Structure formats: C-alpha cells, structure tokens
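Give me the fold.
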Amino acid sequence: MAVEIKRVSPQELEKQKEFTVKTRNLLAERYDSKPLACVVTYGCQQNVADSEHIKGMLEEMGYGFTDNRLEAKLVIFNTCAVREHAEDRVFGNVGALKKYKLANPDVIIALCGCMMQQKHIAAKIKESFAFVDLVFGTHVLHRVPELVYTALTRRKRVFELPDMDGVIAEGVPVKRDNDRKAWIPIMYGCNNFCSYCIVPYVRGRERSRLVDDVVAEFEQLVADGYKEITLLGQNVNSYGKDLEPRVTFAQLLRLLNDLPGDFRIRFMTSHPKDCTKELLDTMAQCDKVATHLHLPFQSGNNRVLRAMNRGYTREHYMELINYAKDLMGDELSITSDIIVGFPGETYEEFQDTLSLVKELGATSLFTFIYSPRLGTPAAKMEDPIPYEEKSKWMRQLLAAQEEISAQQMALHKDKVFKCFVFGKGKTGDNYLAARTDGNLIIEFEGDEGLVGTFQNIKVTEPLTYIMMGEIERN
C-alpha cells in the first residue's frame, strides 16, 4: 500500500503568494533601487535545484541577484551535511560576514538546507552566530516568502525547523541558473539508512512527485528550449514506490523519452539495491536517455557493505554492471562513489575495493575518506585506523583510477560523438566544453554561439579525464 504523502495545499501556496506581495511592497518602501540577494549553495545537485527555487521566490518578492556577498541585502547559505568539510566551510564563510552585518544591520543573513535540519548544528548557530537572522530546514522551502517577510519585520531571530518527514510542494517558482540545462527533482528523501549517511535524517522519508507533475514540468522545459534535463532524487530507482497506481522509474523514463523534441535525459543518483534490469533495458532502448550510469558501490568488500547497510553484495553489483555492459557496450560510461576508511575497515578489505575498481573500469570515481556524521550508527563504531593511513589508501586508489581513466579515454580516439555544448572550456580562450551521451567531456575550438546546442565532435586527443576534439564537418 502506498504511503500517504503530505502535499502542500493550494491554500498554503496562495498564502505564500500573499507574503510575496507584502515583501515586494516592503522592499519598495525601504530601498530606492532593487535590493540584491546572494544565494550560496553547497553540496549536491538537489541543493542546486533547491536554490533555483529559492531564487525563483526571491525574484518574485522583488530581489535582484549578486554573487558578491558584501553588496547583498539578503545572504542565504543553502548548506550540505554529507561531510564535515562542507560544514566547516559554511561556518567559516558565515563567520566572515559578522563584520559586514554589524556595519549593515538591515542586511538579513539566512541559513537553510541539510545542515540546519540537525539539532546540534541549529543549536550552535543559535549560540555562536548571534548575527544570523533566519534559519530554516529542508521541509519548509516553499515558505521562503513568509520566512523572509518575518525576518524583515520582526526584531527577534527566526528559526523554523519542524521535525517531520517532509512534503511535496508544486507550483513553486524557479529561477534556473542555465537556459539550456535543467534539473528536475522527481522525488525527495531517502529510506535506505546507510549507516554512515545523514541524508534520511535531514531530508525525510522518500516521497515521489506525481507523474503528471513531472511530465508537465519536463514538457515546459523542452518547449522553452532546454536540451539536457537531469532527473534528481536521493535514490531515483525508488521513484514511484509510494504512488498508486505504482509507477517505476523505468516507466517514467520511457514516458519522458517518448515526448517530442531534441533533448537528452540524465538522472542521478541510483542505488544498486534498487537498480533493476528493467532500468538498464530502458537505458539501452531509449534513444534520448543518456548511456551514463552513476552507480555508487562505496566498498568492494561484503563485510564492509553489510556494516554500511547497503543491502547488496559485490557480486550483485558486478552482475548489474556486466548486464549493463552487455546491453550498451562501449557506449556505456560508468561512474561511482567510494568511501575509503569506513570504521573497522582493514587494509585487506580496502584491497577488495581496489580490485573492484580495476574490475569495474569506470571512467571516473568520486572518492572520499570516511567522515563521521553525528546521529548515524557508523559514528558510534570503533575506528582504529588513523587518518594518515586512510590517506595512503586513498592515494593508492586515485593512482589506480587515474591509469584506468586514461585507458578508458584512449578507447575513444577518432570516434565521433553527439555532444551537448555546455560552456567555455579550460584549455584555451577559444575552447568550448561539450558533454557526450556517456558524460565524457570533450574540449574543442569553437564560437560561443554553439553553447546550448548539440554538435557532432570527433575525438582527436584523449587525455586522462577529458578529451580534445574538433567539430565533425559534413
């Protein structure tokens, strides 16, 4: 039976529109010109999508935008809680604004996102960062107009951090960062409770958007000229488990693939536990679905995987990978996530991860040394291996993957790929950067007018992590 998901009512959304108007009128009274807002985003693509909705609401409230925090009248930090390093960066950057706030008391400084949903973090902000005006959690994003208006009109600080499983809010305005590439969250939250991960505690339980809402947003993006559209979720493979009638993620992909238009569909992130052969078949059969599979395995050792509560084995993971390779061959690009030095992991167990890396043949990896998260089971586990030793393991892993990445890139010399040109390149002033169907980057000389288009590009020189190329002339 599907779980009942709380969806924000039309009345609540109308209430937020009223606060939008109130805020716009208030700002017009206070300032001679449009006040500027600066939204600083940390973490994953889901946070990027959330920030685009925050900016959409702020724009309707009368704010303009700047990347310079020291000229903004409203600074919002949208935070990430996945690793300690990200949290330390937030504290440092917020602390750096104390002098600016003291000199400009009308400035509103706000913190939101995953970090704020942790009680000990919110307590630290309350006690040690008295100049922060507004703190709100992941479940009240749609209430930004009300919260900002309250912060502007009340003398005391505003903390809005409800302890709940989350909601679905449709119709929230969005200001996208790119006019050809877009993110669509199709679900929120996570039910997996990997022992090292804080996400289920700060994002709530899994909840899927209705198919019609996803399709309508997707169709509008295509109509507006967007060429690369990425479907987002903490675990997209779980999409639809809470819907009646049940819809699988693979079925959603087919629906979107069959829409008219010239576009490419990407998705992230997938969990091996819920990755199905139906999904892999769909990737192979749908011409608009990218043949890039980001499938985090985290560890190559089964004991460590059990301790992580990942719900699959090394053997099952490789069964999925080999099935996908058989279906898509050289067109398939695989990327993955790895945690090095999980509590209790031995060097021998790390060697299993290293051997899986060599067996997998990924084009690239996202690798992290374990970072304890307060409130997760792993944070209470014995962790006898010193950080310095884990760093040595990490260097071994990176060296192995660098060799593998170069080998993978070398396979593509002289091949021609249909690529989405997404921006300026890094190898020279006249170079542009493009992305293949398999998420590989090719840089080539070209005019900036090609940005936002699909082009056929021939690989002339494979490097380790990118390739050089040239436009294929007919």
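The first strand starts at residue 36 and ends at 41.
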